[in-house]
Design goal:
The chain is α/β, with parallel strands linked by helices. It is built from 16 helices and nine strands. The protein has helices at about 5-20, 25-40, 40-50, 80-95, 100-115, 125-130, 135-140, 145-150, 225-235, 255-265, 280-295, 300-320, 350-355, 360-370, 375-400, 400-410; strands spanning about 55-60, 60-65, 180-190, 200-205, 215-220, 245, 265-270, 330-335, 335-340.
Length: about 400
């Protein structure tokens, strides 16, 4: 029976000193036993016995000791140099710092667009490397940069008990629509940790099949504003609205919306109270679209409301046309380990273009709009409006805390 690797190393370590001190015949016997015991090639075994534990002095202070457990590191050729890394960082920033899997999927499409708008310029070799780079290589190269850029809110939903018995419950498991038009809706409150008074709310409408997301800010969560915002979003959505699923907030569970859905022949359902996963599609967009864009500050003025909606105008184009998303295909639990399988990352625009139920006229309109867009310019406009929005928050804080400002200005 052959020895394990750890046993072989132990034998070499025990016999090497005896081998170096032995005579020629004794060395032959030791070598025969070692070859029979380990199965090593005779020349390789001689090399191990000769060098393991051997001390070599190089000068007075340098002392080298042979150790077969340590191996010389192989010098690996670096495929992606600083030029590739610089280009990757630039595109990653334009694409809102998405993960490697999503970025690798969109690179072949977004690089030609950025080159057309002269946002990036690559030589032939760099361009080829960026087009063939894998998701794992992207994550490895950007790991240090991602750590540099390493907000939670509270739910403000108040249950609307009236009419709940008239609106059927729908759970996460019931959502299996393959057709665009069945949406989940939710409100994101911008209270900044202070739930007193009125403050802006963002209506988030997310299509389940494609991931297409529309957002619009309202001055508060009154039914009339939320209802008007929903009708406005429906007017410029690229596909007909077929179904709405909401939480149990009174801003949704009301006569206005129920009557409207009945008149327009729109399916209206709701999730279970306290079960956020029933609205998992829109809940995910609440963070990845709304919170990532505007944060957790308090917005309560008319000027901030205008800035929010101007920002959302650019954000809808940037998110729906240039941000790939992955949809969960299956989830399998094996004890404490959960294995999830996702589909290929695609943008909501790409998913709509692949759907046979979307009419050719709608697809042509989407394609024409897509051809005019520059993701780098959209990102600059979003950043500009974010800066203006955050400056209004800073001014509000200074005006509300004048004593803090006077103390800060003291020498």
């Amino acid at each position: 029976m052959r020895l394990t690797m750890s046993d072989r190393k132990a034998v070499i370590k025990a016999w090497s000193d005896r081998y170096r001190k032995a005579g020629k015949k004794e060395k032959g016997r030791i070598l025969d036993e070692l070859v029979a015991l380990t199965g090593y090639n005779r020349c390789y075994a001689v090399n191990l016995l000769r060098w393991d534990g051997k001390v070599i002095r190089a000068g007075r202070r340098v002392r080298l000791v042979g150790d077969l457990r340590k191996k010389a590191k192989r010098a690996r050729h670096r495929l992606y140099d600083e030029t590739v890394l610089g280009g990757l960082k630039a595109i990653w920033a334009i694409m809102d710092c998405i993960c490697g899997k999503r970025l690798a999927a969109i690179l072949p499409e977004v690089i030609p667009i950025l080159e057309k708008h002269r946002e990036v310029v690559f030589d032939v070799v760099t361009r080829k490397k960026l087009l063939q780079i894998s998701a794992s290589s992207i994550d490895r190269l950007l790991a240090a940069e991602r750590r540099k850029w390493m907000l939670r809110g509270r739910s403000g939903t108040k249950p609307g008990s009236l009419l709940k018995h008239q609106i059927p419950i729908r759970t996460f498991a019931d959502w299996n629509e393959k057709q665009a038009g069945f949406v989940e809706i939710d409100l994101v409150g911008h209270d900044g940790g202070d739930a007193s008074g009125d403050f802006c709310q963002t209506l988030d409408v997310t299509d389940v099949a494609s991931g297409w997301t529309e957002t619009q800010a309202v001055i508060n969560k009154a039914q009339v504003w939320v209802f008007d915002a929903l009708k406005s979003i429906r007017a410029h959505q690229p596909f007909p609205l077929l179904g709405i699923d909401s939480d149990n907030g009174s801003e949704f569970i009301n006569n206005h919306l129920l009557r409207y859905c009945l008149q327009e022949k729109i399916t209206f359902t709701r999730g279970r109270s306290g079960k956020k996963n029933d609205g998992c599609f829109v809940e995910q967009k609440n963070y990845s679209v709304v919170r990532r864009a505007v944060g957790y500050a308090r917005y309560d003025s008319a000027a901030q409301l205008r800035l929010l909606n101007e920002l959302y105008g650019y954000l809808r184009l940037y998110t729906n046309y240039f941000q790939p998303v992955m949809k969960l295909l299956s989830k399998e639990r094996n004890g404490a380990k959960v294995k999830k399988k996702y589909d290929e990352p695609k943008t909501p625009y790409q998913r709509l273009m692949d759907m046979p139920d979307i009419s050719p006229k709608i697809k042509q309109r989407l394609k024409s709009e897509y051809a005019t867009l520059n993701p780098a310019q959209l990102k600059r406009e979003i950043t500009r409006l974010q800066d203006r929005l955050f400056k209004t928050v800073a001014r509000q804080r200074r005006s509300r805390n004048p004593s803090t400002n006077s103390q800060a200005n003291k020498p």
